[in-house]
Amino acid sequence: MMGAGKTRIGKEASHLLGLPFADADLCIEQAIGMPIPQYFAEHGEPAFREVERDVVIEHLQRFPGIFALGGGAPMTPAIQDALEQYKLQGGKVIYLMAHPQEAMERARKGGGRPMLDGDADARWRMLFEQRNPTYTRMANVTVRTHSMTPAKAAERMVDVMNERIVHVTGDGIEDYDVQIGEGVLAQLPHVLGPKPVRVALIHTTSVRRHSDQARTLLRQAGYEVSDITIPDAEAGKTIEVANGIWQRLGEEGFTRSDAVVGLGGGACTDLAGFVAATWMRGVRYVNCPTSLLAMVDASTGGKTGINTPQGKNLVGSFYTPAGVLADLRALVTLPNDIFIEGLGEVAKSGFIGDPEILTILQDHADQLRAFDGSTFLGSDLEPVVAELIERTVRVKAHHVSNDLREAGLREFLNYGHTFGHAIEQLEHFRWRHGNAVAVGMVYAAELARLTGHVDDAFVDQTRSLLDSLGLPTSWHHDRFDDVLTLMHRDKKARGNTLRFVIVDKIGHVIHLEDPPAQAVEQAFRLVQA
Predict the structure, then answer these.
(1) Which domain, by its residues, includes 65?
(2) Which residues are involved in binding NAD(+) (predicted)?
(3) Are 154 and 198 part of one and the same domain?
């Protein structure tokens, strides 16, 4: 809005980033050869908006820096279309949200604003009511500048510029963004939007520091927050836990226009997403993963679910979130072993879709294996982890966008999972998911070798990489029949036919239908500790 400080903050941020800065109003005055108030008076607002449209679209296509738009520019349909294209190409559209009183005061003092002629404050409030919904819809990042100095607001904006955004779209999917970076949790009110009155904040006790921050953000934004704590890990993914939450939502009057926020590891966000999908047939949901595994796996794709005594994730639904906020600050409290298990899913995405992930893992294996949350932020490892998260999310987004309901392509994301899920079940979930998937990938590699799809070198590479990251590559269980029974219950199985996902070369995945029983058992023997 007018008076939000776009020019001052934009200049400060451009200086910090070493980027050029341009102000739309100044560019327009250069194009028309006169001050904007004079052009307004002589030609009227419609003529001004046409000039503004041309100047803004040209800059969005060619200007390589920070560009401050006039307050009315995003209301022009052609500019809205150009901003959407800009976002699709990875651009940040930032809504500087100032406190109304602060913005009105600056707008009055600044003068020279034709849109505020007359009662300036009344005009500002009217324009805000008209424009705020559009600003909120068009922006993929919001920076709240309440009581901030321009320098502080610029620092926050720089944090935003360093964030990574993966846009998820596709048939049957309502588009949403996965935002990755330091401090992205601050975007929570923006992603929730203005419609919800009540928000159920579902989290575990182990992420209290982060849930406290989320609760404060939500209350400051005016939401009524219901704080719901669930058991850690897979113990929280049960019908009993879900039923307790449904009862509470009913008692507290949650309606279809209210919302759910899931904050925690993958098990917590799976459960929270399932509650959101089933309460009144679906309410708005925001996913806030706090572990590496959750950021790269459970955060994207809309899979929600709970476990049953017969297997993992056998009850659930496909339900896409309104947005995903992967805040790197959450990793500072992550124990080393929990961080490393997340690398199992990262490596999986490298094998099935992005070989560069494997290169990054190999080049930084020692650093990753020695992860220490207390020294993570600001370290050389932080941009490495951010890139790994982004690349892994992009692999998953590609498969999800083309196959929301797991009819074909999306099944390839289950590389290593058929055997891995059996491990989890037989170990009564004492084994963490990423570790089980790591052994599952070794099993899949051995099975692919036994069936003639890969050579010994591929199996050796799989084992060597996972071992260098500190991930397990073997597992012991006495009874093969137990494992076989559970693999037959896998979601990829068809009737009595076993069906595996295997890699026949890095980056290329195929289905292995009903492999020889001898190979299935021999691969099991080869992964025994």
Answers:
(1) 6-161
(2) 232-237, 266-270, 290-291, 303, 312
(3) no
According to the annotation, is 149 in a ligand binding site? no
Provide the annotated active-site residues: 281, 303, 345, 396, 406, 410, 414, 417, 421, 433
Task: Indicate the number of domains in the chain.
Answer: 3
Provide block-wise average pLDDT over 10 residues at a time, the chain (529 residues): 87 92 94 91 92 94 93 94 90 87 75 66 86 88 82 86 81 83 89 91 90 92 92 86 93 94 91 93 94 85 79 80 94 94 96 94 96 93 94 86 58 89 90 94 96 95 97 94 87 70 91 92 91
Regarding whether 168 and 154 lie in a shared domain, the answer is: no
Full DSSP string of 143-200: EE-TT--HHHHHHHHHHHHT-EEEEE--TT---EEEEEETTGGGGHHHHH-SS-SEEE
State the Cα torsion 389-391-392-394 to the nearest 10°: 120
Q: Is 25 known to sit in a ligand binding site?
A: yes
68 and 155 assigned to the same domain:
yes
Q: Is 198 annotated as a binding residue?
A: no
**Torsion angle of the four alpha carbons 86, 88, 91, 95, in this order, in degrees rounded to the nearest 10:** 80
